[in-house]
Amino acid sequence: MMTSMIGAVESGLLYALMALGVYITFRILDFPDLTVDGSFTTGAAIGTVMTINGSPPWLAIIYAFIGGALAGMCTGLLHTKGKINGLLSGIIMMIALYSINLRILGKPVLSLRGSENAFDDADVWLVGAILVIVVLVLLVLFLNTNLGLSLRATGDNSRMIRSFGANTDNTIIMGVALSNALVACSGALVAHSLNAANNAMGIGMIVIGLASVIIGEAVIGSKSILRALIAVVIGAIIYRMIYALALRVPWLDSQDMKLISAVIIISALVIPSVRRALKQKSIAKKRTAEVLSSLGKSNTGGVR
Predict the structure, then answer these.
(1) Which of 115, 137, 167, 199 is most buried (most C-beta within 10 Å)?
(2) How many independent structural domains does the chain possess?
(3) What are the helix (H) ranges across the chain?
(4) What is the span of the domain harbouring residue 272?
């Protein structure tokens, strides 16, 4: 039990970078980017192939970051310059990346066993924690710069920011590129932790990323940008822990992974809505009681 929980925390830290990327597009930019399913595998493919060919693991991960940024940039260009719907742009790029990733890998599954690994000299949780902290600090600093504020404003009200002379096309391209760069970096790290990469490992990543964001916001909240980013990281860890616990149920196994993911996401979406409804109902009852009480007092005063 303890071993599986430790493994869940380690996985959560590695997937947290992917969840942060999803947060940038879906929450900050309000852009429905489905490129994630492809760029995650792109990062894993680049990180694996370069390492096998003798590159230092960390250099391979940096190149994976750049590869993800290029994939995101293409999605942004399709949307802004090609005038293609944002959702459709992500789908097109995701489909294109499937073939590109297969070209990079050379075959559907590529093993890293026997090659140098990013986690040879340090534990997964330690490397993951350090990377997450560094990325959190850099993101907070960036999102509070003029460029970062324009990125946030583009997601909140693109028409208003355009009226001030800002080029929203550039901010959208930059935001989607940064998002997919983090996703690809996460893919490379996950591939190193698993000692393998395959062309289907990115399928469903967007769902996991969204679940992490939703769970984190439900548990921690998102009143400030720092709190929101921390919530995403915590959400990624909680998701992996729930997933690990679900797999320990006797009548569930690995083939039920997608079903478990769907149930977790449904719960993460429904529970906050139910809590809000109950809270509003409680407030309404309280107000009704106060009104009835005040009416009763006024009637009593009139009788006197």
Answers:
(1) 199
(2) 2
(3) 2-23, 36-52, 57-80, 86-105, 124-143, 146-156, 158-163, 168-194, 205-219, 225-247, 257-303
(4) 258-304
pLDDT in tens, 74-109: 999 999 999 999 899 999 999 999 999 999 999 889
Return the residue matching tokens 């107000």: 287
The mean pLDDT value for 133-152 works out to 92
109 and 203 share a domain? yes
Secondary structure (DSSP) of 88-145: HHHHHHHHHHHHHHHHHHSSSEEE-TTS--TTSSS-HHHHHHHHHHHHHHHHHHHHTS
Give the up-direction half-sphere exposure of residue 113: CA atoms within 13 A in the CB hemisphere.
Answer: 3
Residue 253 lies in a domain: no
Amino acid identity, residue 289? Answer: A
Asked whether residue 110 falls in the same domain as residue 208, the answer is yes
pLDDT at 133: 95
Entry pTM: 0.87
Token pair 């591939």: residue? 191
Residue 198: its H or E element? strand 196-198
More confident residue, 192 or 162: 192
Q: Return the SS3 of 197.
A: strand
The whole-angstrom separation of Cα 124 and Cα 255 is: 25
Q: Are residues 279 and 144 part of one domain? A: no
- SS3 state of residue 224: coil
Backbone angles phi, psi at 118, to 5 degrees: -65, -20
pLDDT of residue 236: 92
Question: Are the C-beta atoms of 128 and 16 separated by less than 8 Å?
Answer: yes
Q: Are residues 295 and 228 in the same domain?
A: no
CA–CA dist 65, 50 (Å, integer): 13
